[in-house]
Specification:
Layout: E1 7-13, H1 20-33, H2 38-58, E2 64-70, E3 74-82, H3 93-102, E4 105-111, E5 114-122, H4 124-131
Antiparallel strand pairs: 1-2, 2-3, 3-5, 4-5
Helix pairs in contact: 1-2, 2-3
């Protein structure tokens, strides 16, 4: 298996659900660069879609800023947006459950008027290395 080349992509997009297909394409493209199999690549597509949709729904209309970080261990995606003043962080329970199933880890936070969602999908070699310890 060839080594995974670290890659970071940054994307800033309007809070428009029609653009979720762009996020899915970026996520699946990086998953393939990370040598994830077809099932894991589809899980990344679902995870990125859920993350993006949640951020769009939480946004006050401000752009969504995403960073896709592919490392030899994992594909990490972090997205952030500005939420409406006084709004509490509320993640749809179904979204949270979906991310629990398809991502290795995920988390949400809100501070200073910004909502952030982060997910990670371990790469195959990272799973082998972790289990041999």
């Amino acid at each position: 298996m060839a080594d995974v080349q670290p890659t970071t992509l940054q994307l800033r997009m309007p809070a428009d659900p029609q653009l979720l297909r762009v996020l899915r394409l970026v996520g699946s493209g990086l998953a393939s660069l990370g040598q994830l199999d077809l099932t894991a690549t589809e899980e990344v597509r679902v995870a990125v879609d859920e993350l993006g949709a949640a951020l769009i729904s939480m946004s006050d209309g401000s752009p969504i800023e995403l960073t896709f970080d592919l490392t030899p261990l994992a594909l990490c995606v972090e997205g952030t947006t500005t939420h409406p003043a006084g709004a509490a962080l509320e993640v749809d329970p179904l979204t949270d459950r979906m991310l629990s199933v398809v991502a290795t880890t995920h988390e949400w936070s809100a501070a200073d008027g910004r909502t952030t969602g982060r997910l990670e999908k371990a790469l195959p070699q990272a799973s082998v290395d972790a289990s041999s310890r």
